[in-house]
Design brief:
Blueprint (H helix, E strand, L loop, with lengths): L11 E4 L1 H4 L5 H15 L6 E4 L48 H9 L3 E7 L2 E2 H5 L11 H4 E6 L6 E4 L3 H17 L3 E5 L18 H12 L6 E4 L9 H7 L2 E3 L8 H14 L8 E3 L7 E2 L8 E2 L4 H14 L3 E3 L8 H7 L2 H4 L6 E8 L3 E8 L4 E8 L5 E6 H4 L18 E2 L2 E6 L4 E7 L2
Length: about 425
């Protein structure tokens, strides 16, 4: 099975990180999955992803000092493979791993994903633990000079037969659990600096190892690479070996980051195709932050900024992973996630194009190559209310637009061959017409 067939459209789902950080447990995952199945599945949302350190014992207990407790105990099997912490994931006890939880998720008609760190556990290398299917131990596969700058759990893996055997056994285990999605961290951009001062692509061979290991399994597993910013000169490599890759660092709910995403999307707009998606990162909506030091809060984005984010992510074609606690999903956030007309832009057949951008406005368009639908989106990037306009000819639109704006239902206003709209600070308007 070809890697590109694993994600024919940009993946849509829920990820535990924005609300729980390292602390999520099985009961919480099941509860969020239940809400997705009931309220979001019919709109295309399908992945439930357990994010970082599901293998760690007592994570979050030193959050005032460490996000990732140095050299904390972890759950691990005899072949150097991390397992779910049975205290937080009771159904994993007895070596069952995530199989029971994945079965529950699948029973809801959803798909199951997990986060992993690049490399092999440092504890496995220090204790010379086995690698399945290989006569070499973990210390021989580990590269002790390759360590993540922000998480102490792993060593990088050498580009050798033992390293490939480790990744093969890891993916074999995950496939046996029923994993549908893997988010691999510290691999898209390792943030190490080479002698020339340019960002190093230290994880290149490990991306290839993971892709080969997935290909050996008779199971489609979407491969997502983090963190960003992805390296534009490596676009060909991401597209060859992965399904999605982060084009930014961790994205949170502040306007400067959202405004900057217009630049990043412009850089990557020509690299979207079926099965391969530049990833704008998670949607920090609703209730967030419970597992972090500052505690639970609601998103800091204004309602206008939330619409702008959803519009940009969808017309650009980014995967959508919502970070909200779904059991506290309010009607406003639900309306953002279930607007079928906005979500209709989220297809690899819509080719995005940024037509104009300055400090105060941005104009985007995209056309669905299959249906002939064309979308035009106007964004007010200013901190003040203002009129944003664009020439209909530039947008590839007819002289008259009869369709309404897709968020508000307001009629389109055209005059003198231009589409114009008065927008609040950081607001947007998006329109759809048929070009043929």
């Amino acid at each position: 099975m070809n890697k590109n067939s694993f994600a024919p459209t940009p993946p849509m789902g829920w990820n535990s990180y924005d609300y729980y950080d390292t602390t999520v447990n099985e009961q919480q995952v099941r509860a969020n999955a239940g809400v997705m199945a009931k309220k979001l599945k019919e709109y295309g949302w399908e992945y439930i992803v357990v994010d970082i350190q599901w293998y760690a014992h007592k994570p979050g207990t030193m959050r005032d000092r460490f996000q990732y407790i140095p050299f904390a105990p972890v759950e691990i099997d005899e072949y150097s493979r991390l397992l779910p912490d049975p205290e937080r994931f009771p159904s994993s006890a007895g070596g069952r791993g995530f199989a029971p939880l994945a079965e529950y998720i699948h029973g809801l008609g959803l798909k199951f994903g997990i986060h992993i760190m690049r490399g092999i556990p440092r504890i496995a290398a220090h204790q010379h633990m086995k690698i399945k299917g290989c006569g070499v131990t973990a210390d021989m596969a580990a590269n002790p000079s390759s360590v993540c700058r922000w998480n102490p759990d792993m060593y990088g893996v050498r580009d050798c037969a033992a390293g490939q055997a480790y990744y093969d056994s890891l993916i074999e285990l995950y496939a046996s659990w029923g994993v549908d999605f893997i988010k691999c961290d510290d691999i898209c951009n390792t943030n190490n600096i080479s002698a020339s001062g340019e960002p190093a692509y230290e994880g290149k061979h490990e991306i290839e190892m993971l892709a080969r290991a997935i290909q050996k399994q008779n199971r489609p597993i979407v491969l997502s690479l983090s963190p960003g910013p992805a390296l534009i000169d490596k676009a060909w490599h991401y597209k060859k070996h992965a399904n999605m890759w982060r084009i930014a660092g961790d994205f949170w709910d502040n306007w400067p980051q959202l405004k900057d995403m217009f630049c990043r999307c412009e850089l990557w707009q020509d690299h979207m195709e079926a099965g391969c998606y530049p990833d704008c990162d998670m949607l920090p909506l609703g209730y967030l932050g419970k597992g972090f030091e500052e505690g639970e809060r609601t998103t800091r984005f204004t309602r206008e900024e939330q619409r702008t984010m959803m519009t940009l992510w969808c017309l650009f074609g980014s995967p959508l992973m919502v970070g909200a606690e779904l059991t506290k999903l309010d009607e406003w956030t639900l309306s953002l996630l279930t607007n079928r007309e906005i979500l209709a832009m989220l297809t690899p057949y819509c080719r995005p194009r940024q037509l104009a951008r300055d400090d105060n406005r941005a104009v985007w368009t995209c056309e669905n190559e299959k249906t002939g639908e064309r979308y035009a989106a106007l964004f007010n990037l200013s901190d003040e209310e203002g009129i944003v306009s664009a020439a209909l000819e530039e947008l590839g639109l007819p002289e008259e637009i009869s369709d309404r704006e897709l968020w508000t239902g307001n009629p389109a206003k055209t005059e003198g061959g231009r589409l114009s709209v008065c927008l609040p600070p950081h607001g947007c308007a998006v329109y759809r017409v048929f070009s043929r």
